[in-house]
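Notebook entry, structure prediction.
Reason for the run: the old model in the group folder had no record of what sequence produced it. Starting over properly, with the input documented here first.
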Amino acid sequence: MANIVKLFKVNKLGPIGLLAACASFVGIFLPWKQTKIDLVNGTLEPLGWIMAILIILYVLLLFANFKWNILLGFAMLIISVYQYLEIRASMTVDPDIQMKYGLYVIMISSLVMALSKLLLFRKKKTQAPPPPPDLSQQSNQP
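New structure, fully documented this time:
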């Protein structure tokens, strides 16, 4: 684990983002919805492939210490919530469709991906300079 932390020179939260990206990638292959006939996962959906590309870009930019890949984490979150809402809408039309856990894994891990980079934007607290010495107590002898 220490060697992995050394790869992330600036970001101490890098391993958390990397684990979240791995969980998102696994979530693409987990079932998203169940129809009467089969299980549907992210590889059968066009947005699943877009999410896979975003995850690969996130990991590559994570190793490059590029802190703006927070946008990739939020993009993953937006896409997964959109896909969730789309499946929920199709459940109202076809009552045989059931929601599965793959999208939940992606939503949670993409939120962690974004938050692990968001914490980099916090500014370090600067210490106030020490007060100047009190000149009124010094002697004024010529």
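Summary: The mean pLDDT is 81.
The old model has been moved to the deprecated folder.
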